[in-house]
Amino acid sequence: MFRNEIFSAKAIESQAAVREKKVAEMVEFFGGNLGESVCIREVVFATIFDMLSNLMFSRDFIGFERNETANRLKSLIQRLIELGVSPNLADFFPVMKNLDPQGLRREATRRCNELYSLWQRDVKERRERGGERERSDDTKDFLDILLENGLDDDQVDWLSLVSFFFFKLFTAGTDTNTATIEWAMTELIRNRGVMNKLREELKREVLPLISGKPLIDEAMAARLPYLNAIVKETLRLHPPVSLLPPHRASESCELLNYTIPEGAYITVNVWAIGRDPTVWDDDPGTFKPERFIGSKTDFRAQHFELVPFGGGRRMCPGMPLSARLIPLVLAALVRNFDWCLPNEVDPAKLDMSEKFGLALQKELPLRLIPRQSLF
Asked: At which positions is heme bound (predicted)?
């Protein structure tokens, strides 16, 4: 149902207005903070989270202003992600399979229940009203679709089931996209030549179409080759998930003179593939979007040198959504503002250290000062 109702081409197209509205609100927030240092990660996280919460529940959960609920939600998700990637002794020693020696499982359960409580009231109220909402328009959110499809049988723990799937969507959808956009902005700040080329593309291709409007829509962003080359190059150098979730060999096979036994778990190192000089022989450590101009290489699992979303039947179902969302946000940020580092820091000295988690984030959050755009 997620794949068909949220991530299908038809569904993603119908959701464009929601995403564009949230990006407009993000631009408005930055416009109200001209000349002030802002944390790109926090604002983009709030934007994407509320995009998803509107698709799920038709309402915002966070917003851009600091408040107790937003802070609690952010800290809960961050802690759950940390717990999810923490080494667990019970995973390595079969004798401990049913034990919880580090208390990771207990804490994760407790924090999941805290997170679920933030939206369980919405689910209960909508269910008690028979699916009716307090909205005047005809658009449906995912909770409507669940109720219409009969997933309200008292014989199953319906509330826990829905909460679990919402949790999966929020954690996987926010952290990864936020990290990619933050890395892209970091590389644009460090590579002014790339930033200027993107500005020229926006001036040439977009300004004649928007007639003074401040925003770019998704359809426009999808048609900008240099913008999309920047997205690909960011995903190559900074894949949101550096190690793909383990796959299992269904039968024994030979690969590069190695025997992969049946049942073996295999982890694909996407980060290493993206920096492999035998694959990317044109200085793989350099941020160079031009390598994708005129190239057919794409991240939609057709080219194994670029697989940030995995491949095959188990590839990330959210890939089509990310492919639209990331260019849209980047285009809005570059189109509407000039950006500079606080305290006149030299962009070449930006800390590029990585922090391993669910997403491979920038260890030190990127802080930038938005200024009025020159075009």
From this structure: 316
What are 291-300's pLDDT values in tens digits? 999 999 999 8
pTM of the predicted model as reported, rounded to 2 decimal places: 0.88
Please report the pLDDT score of residue 154 as a whole number: 57
* Residue ranges making up the domain that contains 330: 2-372
Q: How far apart are CA 288 and CA 291, in angstroms?
A: 6
- Select from 137, 143, 171 the least CA-distant residue to 21: 137
- What gap in Å lies between CA 67 and CA 323, rounded to an integer? 31
Instruction: Report the SS3 class of residue 154.
Output: coil
CA pair distance 57, 142, nearest whole angstrom? 7
Q: Which amino acid does the sequence have at 237?
A: L
Kindly give, in sequence order, each residue whose CB lies less than 8 Å from that of residue 8, ignoring residues fewer than 6 positions away.
320
Binding residues for heme: 316
Highest mean pLDDT of the ranges 28-37, 47-56, 102-111, 213-222? 28-37
pLDDT, tens digit, 9 for 90 and up, residues 194-216: 999 999 999 888 876 665 565 78
pLDDT greater than 50 at residue 176: yes
Q: Which residues are annotated as a binding site?
A: 316
Q: Which amino acid is at 162?
A: V
H/E segment holding residue 56: helix 40-57
User: What's the domain count of the chain?
Assistant: 1
What is the CATH number for 235? 1.10.630.10
> Do 241 and 359 touch, CB atoms closer than 8 A?
yes
